[in-house]
Amino acid sequence: ELLAPARVILARRLPRLAINLWEGTDREVHHWMTDGRVDVGLVGPLLRPIPNATVVPLMEDPWYVACPVAHELARSEVLDIRQLGDVPYVMADGGCEPVVRALFDRAAIRPNVSYRAQSIDTILTMVAGGLGITLVPELGLQTFEAALIRTVPLSPRTTRLVAAVMPAGDNAPIAAHQLVAAMQQHIARRERSSLATTMQTTSESHDGRDATGHYGARQTNDRISGRN
């Protein structure tokens, strides 16, 4: 989640600023930006160029395989995407689907799509219920009940580019630039915290304790309109 912490940072700088959040797929964000209906779009990744727009790369977001805790894949430390071809797959309908299919295409396999859903909460509930597996970006691993699923990183490490999109040049409001700067500040803090956690985990694993864990998940695709 990038927007909630960024809004907290931005509220300190511009306390009177009102921000409207629009939630939709990457395709919808493309239309909103093209039509000028929003000032900043958050996409991951940008599916195709948007005319007269500036793209600000924010972070590389790694993909994980989410599977039921009782599934045999849940016992793996890492997974190759080629191991997923025959497993029932719960596909995100509209949002990440083009990116997910591209990942499978690169491995010359097709996902065994058995179910579809649009909400990440619904998708992960289906996974937790044993209906299949799904690919989830790390930013989506936030608040879903960790005991119900196991998330395993892909190997080789595979990421998606998360970027902010806003009108080019002087057409972008000052608040849009401030919001992007707030997201960048939050990401920098998050990466420092992650590094410190990794160092602590490594130290604990050297002491013989278990350094693996379950991850919770919740993903939102918030889209921003913020005018002074």
Write structural notes for this entry.
This protein is an alpha+beta fold and 228 residues long. It contains 5 helices and 9 strands, in the order αβαβββαβαβββαβ. The chain has helices spanning 3-13, 26-35, 97-106, 120-128, 174-206, and strands spanning 20-23, 41-43, 53-68, 88-92, 112-117, 134-137, 149-153, 159-167, 222-225. α1 packs across α5. The two termini are 24 Å apart. 32% of the residues are buried.
What is the C-alpha radius of gyration, as a whole number of Å? 19 Å
DSSP helix count? 5
- Find the structural class using helix and strand composition: alpha+beta
Global shape: globular
User: What composes the largest sheet?
Assistant: 5 strands, antiparallel
Low-pLDDT runs:
205-228
Write the layout of secondary structure elements.
Layout: H1 3-13, E1 20-23, H2 26-35, E2 41-43, E3 53-68, E4 88-92, H3 97-106, E5 112-117, H4 120-128, E6 134-137, E7 149-153, E8 159-167, H5 174-206, E9 222-225
Parallel strand pairs: 4-5
Antiparallel strand pairs: 1-9, 2-8, 3-6, 3-7, 3-8
List keywords for this structure.
228 residues; alpha+beta; 5-stranded antiparallel beta sheet; two-stranded antiparallel ribbon; 5 helices; globular; disordered C terminus
Short account of what is shown:
This protein is α+β, with helices and mostly antiparallel strands and 228 residues long.
